[in-house]
């Protein structure tokens, strides 16, 4: 997470320039009004956009959205909200939602920390997915990593009892940090002895599969709220 001196707050992302494709721009215009949830500084009823009462899972930083769309389609009885700041990724996921008619997935384009603090009620989430967050691999930048004790405490506050946090990373030292931070939170319990087996709902990305073939590691961590 980053400290923003202009607003005196912690940020969960770094803004990067990204080229918006024609398809992504069209998806923002065509599907945005239906599937984008506007950020607001007030609690929001996340069941309303789906028209039903179902378990709600939040994904933080979904990138280009392929994994998010896959999981939502594989788990039709669960509703998903993906939070991402980068416009090309938002456009990419909206394109998939619209073209593949994914009914149980919505998108918020905003900082996840503010969304958690201002829009999501305590005890309302069935799960949180954080897949391959920015590793900030230089030692002097490690403090900018998302998985830090205050952020994990905030996630626990928003989880219902029995709710879970699922993180994945391909940076071993970040995996070690994740295990230490999640393991030190008294409200959480590890579902495994150390790192977890990859849950079946999380698909292998092309990048991840290529890395595994080259001998690179990927670490999944799944903790539940006591």
TrEMBL record:
Catalyzes the formation of N(7)-methylguanine at position 46 (m7G46) in tRNA. Residues 140-145 are annotated as: Interaction with RNA. GO terms for molecular function: tRNA (guanine(46)-N7)-methyltransferase activity. The keyword Methyltransferase applies. SUPFAM superfamilies: S-adenosyl-L-methionine-dependent methyltransferases (SSF53335). Belongs to the class I-like SAM-binding methyltransferase superfamily. TrmB family. Keywords: Methyltransferase, S-adenosyl-L-methionine, Transferase, tRNA processing. The lineage of its organism: Bacteria, Pseudomonadati, Pseudomonadota, Betaproteobacteria, Burkholderiales. Substrate binds at residues 138, 170, 205-208. Pathway: tRNA modification; N(7)-methylguanine-tRNA biosynthesis. It comes from the Bacteria. This is tRNA (guanine-N(7)-)-methyltransferase. PROSITE patterns: SAM_MT_TRMB (PS51625). S-adenosyl-L-methionine binds at residues 59, 84, 111, 134. Its EC number is 2.1.1.33. It catalyses: guanosine(46) in tRNA + S-adenosyl-L-methionine = N(7)-methylguanosine(46) in tRNA + S-adenosyl-L-homocysteine. Pfam families: Methyltransf_4 (PF02390).
């Amino acid at each position: 997470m980053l400290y923003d001196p202009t607003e005196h707050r912690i940020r969960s992302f770094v803004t990067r320039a990204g080229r918006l494709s024609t398809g992504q721009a069209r998806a923002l215009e065509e599907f945005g009004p239906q599937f984008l949830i506007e950020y607001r500084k007030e609690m929001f009823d996340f069941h309303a956009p789906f028209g039903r009462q179902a378990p709600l899972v939040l994904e933080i930083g979904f990138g280009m959205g392929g994994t998010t769309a896959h999981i939502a389609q594989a788990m039709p009885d669960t509703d998903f909200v993906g939070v991402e700041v980068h416009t090309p990724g938002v456009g990419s996921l909206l394109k998939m939602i619209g073209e593949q008619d994914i009914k149980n997935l919505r998108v918020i384009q905003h900082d996840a920390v503010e969304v958690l603090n201002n829009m999501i009620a305590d005890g309302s989430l069935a799960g949180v997915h954080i897949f391959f967050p920015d590793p900030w691999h230089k030692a002097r930048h490690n403090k900018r990593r998302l998985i830090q004790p205050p952020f994990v405490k905030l996630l626990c506050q928003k989880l219902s009892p029995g709710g879970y946090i699922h993180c994945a990373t391909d940076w071993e030292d970040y995996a070690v940090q994740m295990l230490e931070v999640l393991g030190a939170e008294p409200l959480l319990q590890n579902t495994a002895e150390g790192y977890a087996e990859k849950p079946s709902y999380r698909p292998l990305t092309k990048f991840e599969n290529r890395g595994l073939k080259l001998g690179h590691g990927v670490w999944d961590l799944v903790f539940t709220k006591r």
